[in-house]
Specification:
This protein is 37% helix and 15% strand. The protein is of the alpha+beta class. It has a five-stranded antiparallel beta sheet, sandwiched between helices. A two-stranded antiparallel sheet has the order 6-7. A two-stranded parallel sheet has the order 8-9. A hairpin with a 6-residue loop joins β4 and β5. α1 packs antiparallel against α2. The longest helix has 17 residues.
């Protein structure tokens, strides 16, 4: 039985809400080329479930809400939004997609209890999925890190979605991770590498790119050494692409009242944006 997944990503940076919304609303033309994982011929099937029709309006909605709450003075590393990705198996019944994503959005609203800035369903990629951008604003404070929480909360989120939505559509609960022996891990790595060597085009799939990033991020030194690359110092001032911003590990959001922020330069059009994920 196939499973549905829910994953979360903390978004930081002054322009990040607009940039994420541009991807979700398909406003980045560079993502729609012939070598993209997005199928432009199917983009017309995407569903706009909530929020304004343009990325600029989504960003204005977030900024106005923060200003009205007096929570617009943020640090550079403050979480500006939380993106919830709800992904269905590629084999899910197309006739039920509209219904399950509507139920998923209702669950997101109730479970997280913060404003939904935008919700868009993508049917122009390999697996149907919904991007819901949340404004982590509660009681006049930005609470992005608390909204995402730790590993235990992420497991509770998966369980809550299964019990409230997925099980009613015949989908299974995602399997819990278990400790694996070194022999099994090595064998699994060999299988994955063999698959990528045989089908390099699979590197364009968002889920594959995200999983590969997370695997490397856990222990990046050997991969950088093998590629002849230097370990980043964290002091570079060069402009970063949206992909680099979205895939770098997020710093914990301070608990204290944040003040002061200077927006970094972002060039979202430079590279396609991979969907975030947590399995």
């Amino acid at each position: 039985m196939a499973a549905a997944f829910v994953s979360l990503k903390k978004l930081t940076g002054a322009a990040i809400v607009k940039t994420a919304a541009r991807h979700n609303l398909r406003e980045i033309q560079a993502e729609l080329g012939s070598d993209s994982h997005i199928n432009p011929a199917q983009t017309c099937r995407n569903m706009h479930l909530a929020g304004p029709a343009t990325a600029a309006e989504v960003a204005d909605l977030a900024n106005n809400a923060m200003q009205d709450a007096g929570a617009d003075k943020l640090r550079k590393d403050a979480v500006r939004a939380v993106e919830v990705l709800v992904s269905m198996p590629a084999t899910f019944d197309p006739a039920k997609l509209e219904s399950i994503f509507a139920d998923a959005l209702e669950w997101v609203r109730g479970f997280f209890g913060v404003p939904v800035l935008s919700a868009v369903v993508h049917l122009d990629e390999e697996a149907p999925h919904m991007h819901a951008l949340l404004l982590p604003l509660a009681n006049g404070r930005m609470v992005g890190s608390d909204l995402v929480g730790n590993r235990g909360r992420l497991q509770a989120i998966q369980a809550g979605f299964f019990e409230s939505v997925a099980c009613r559509y015949g989908l299974s609960r995602p399997r819990q991770e278990k400790r694996l022996s070194r022999v099994i891990r090595d064998e699994a790595a060999s299988v994955a590498l063999a698959c990528l060597f045989s089908h390099p085009e699979r590197l364009q799939q968002p889920s594959v790119r995200t999983a590969l990033h997370e695997a490397i991020a856990t222990h990046p030194e050997p991969m950088l050494a093998a590629l002849g690359l230097e370990m980043p110092t964290g002091n570079a001032k060069a402009q970063k692409s949206f992909v680099e911003i979205m895939t770098k590990p997020c710093k914990p959001e301070p608990k204290s009242n944040p003040v002061g922020f200077k927006a970094p330069a972002v060039t979202p059009e430079s590279k396609p944006y991979p969907c975030v994920g947590f399995a």
